[in-house]
């Protein structure tokens, strides 16, 4: 239940040497890498001015691409960056509520997924996300993708939930979580839809989880241990 990750805050808040040495250390010890990348247009401008390349090119130069690496946000990842991440299986942690709160923009999640970029879901941090509610993030990811593509079919409820579960597992390089399958960790969350908030939405209960008001967890089992029962934290 404990994983170690080397995670400088961002390539723009630490030195080039620290970024490169972090990557070398992570590969030496067989652990993962994480940072925040291309969150705003200002990040891209800074990278071009300071490093004479895009954030994705800078990440590649310093060894910050590969299946053991994931970057938060990537709102302003250009086509080259998207293709690079797809080719190297570099992951993206999509943080829709944070991006909206800070006015950072909308990450091209549907396009990333179509190109083969591993995409998971994140909440960023308490400085830019007061709720920290993963189901709410899935809802926002679904709706933002539709706005970004001007297409109501850009990301379905099931696809958004896939990003939140299997997508997150893939980004973290884990094959033991992310789906209810024999042999994987006993991680289960359940929601009670027999409430007023879901009235009229139960023709598709799974979609209702995202289209209706974000639900409180009724039951939570993590690694085989009961954590929440009847909506109460144990």
Shape: globular
The total of beta strands comes to 9
Percentage of residues assigned to helices: 25-40%
Mean pLDDT: 95
Strand-residue proportion: 15-25%
CA distance, first residue to last residue: 18 Å
Helical stretch count?
Answer: 9
Class per helix and strand makeup: alpha/beta
Describe the largest sheet: 5 strands, parallel
Unreliable residue stretches: none
Record the SSE blueprint.
Elements: E1 5-6, H1 16-29, E2 32-37, H2 41-51, H3 55-61, E3 69-73, H4 79-88, E4 91-94, H5 96-101, H6 109-115, E5 119-121, H7 134-149, H8 157-171, E6 188-191, H9 205-211, E7 217-222, E8 225-229, E9 232-233
Parallel strand pairs: 1-2, 2-3, 3-4, 4-5
Antiparallel strand pairs: 6-7, 7-8, 8-9
Helix pairs in contact: 3-4, 7-8
């Amino acid at each position: 239940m404990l994983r170690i990750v080397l995670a400088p805050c961002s390539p723009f808040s630490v030195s080039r040497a620290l970024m490169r040495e972090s990557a070398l250390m992570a590969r030496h010890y067989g652990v993962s890498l994480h940072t925040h990348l291309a969150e705003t247009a200002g990040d891209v401008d800074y990278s071009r001015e300071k490093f004479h390349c895009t954030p994705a090119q800078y990440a590649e130069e310093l060894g910050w691409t590969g299946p053991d690496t994931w970057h938060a946000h990537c709102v302003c990842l250009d086509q080259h960056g998207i293709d690079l991440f797809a080719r190297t299986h570099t992951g993206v942690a999509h943080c829709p509520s944070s991006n909206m709160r800070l006015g950072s923009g909308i990450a091209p999640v549907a396009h990333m997924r179509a190109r083969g970029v591993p995409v998971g879901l994140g909440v960023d941090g308490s400085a830019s996300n007061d709720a920290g509610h993963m189901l709410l993030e899935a809802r926002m990811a679904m709706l933002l993708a539709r706005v970004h593509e001007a297409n109501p079919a850009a990301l379905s409820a099931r696809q958004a939930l896939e990003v939140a579960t299997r997508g997150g597992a893939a980004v973290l390089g884990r094959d033991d979580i992310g789906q209810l399958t024999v042999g994987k960790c006993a991680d289960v969350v359940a929601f009670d839809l027999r409430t007023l908030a879901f009235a009229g939405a139960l023709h598709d209960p799974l979609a209702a989880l995202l289209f209706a008001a974000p639900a409180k967890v009724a039951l939570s089992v993590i690694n085989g241990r009961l954590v929440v029962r009847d909506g109460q934290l144990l």
